[in-house]
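Question (not urgent): is this output format expected?
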Amino acid sequence: MKNRILPVFIPFAGCRQRCVYCSQNSITGHTSTEIVSSAERQIKDYLGISSNWDELAYYGGSFTCLPGALRLKLYSLAHRYGFRKLRFSTSPDCVTHENMAEAAENGVDTVEIGVQSLDGEVLRLNKRPCGAEETIEAMKTVKKHVGKLSAQIMTGMYGENFHSFDATVNALLDVKPDYVRIYPCVVLKDTELYSLWLSGDHIPLPLTETLARCAYAFILFEAAGIEVIRIGLQDAESMKEQIAAGEYHPATGDIVKTIAVAIYLGLGHNPVLDKKYINTAYGYNGYNRSACEGRLEMKDGVKPDLRTVCKRITEVESYKRYIQRQAAFHAQRLVGASDNG
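Got this back:
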């Protein structure tokens, strides 16, 4: 059963510095009182829609960078409304054994770390608050105290190439978080990255390369037993209005999964699933439909198993190079088909 998370957004609360891709207009100047009152309004609004929630999450800020007294108020607020299972996102530079123990004591089951990259030069160029080693240590600290670790990474960051992205993926495979979110880096207005783009110092990735890198990471993470819980940016009008450059696609996750299935089919494997899930096999815009003809095995009650799909892909010789090539090939075809459609 899907975990029902009530999201409470505390935008950029606690952030100690501005990364080059971060919008200045998004930085909060709110007081502690305003943060708590905003959080309570959001909780009431969601509870007015439904009382059926499993967990409360504080998203959008660096929770453990907040003053201790404010953290305790936010914990207390969640408990007052009946939530005993919590999660939050935070920055690796504010993860300590003390505040992770505090989190565990207050019912936090999952901590989401804004990793972005584990290449030291990419982190420096993007003005991230800490380096790769400190970020890895922060993730290990989370795993020591809290039930589950989620890592958020980006691709297409300023100064990044495929090798630095691959290094980030490999480092996370060693740390083995429970979950990963993969976000493409886009150029938002009113950011330092916007100025770098205008000057020509930053060239955003084309959509085909963004999709290929996301698919590469998705396959490797899932094959290793790491669940990818998000691929791509939220499909929100406010977000799209702020994007000045960089490829944005609202169906990034669907396309990435379509690429994984296409590679699986290309290796000669035949999917087995309940007929009601047939669109998962056919993929985005029916891209895999012709390849599936005469090969699908219908079995009642069998759900799509993308983890097994990814594991089978990694069984081929030199699988990383193979995945990179195949992901690029299918991304090119998918984008071309979408453009022609």
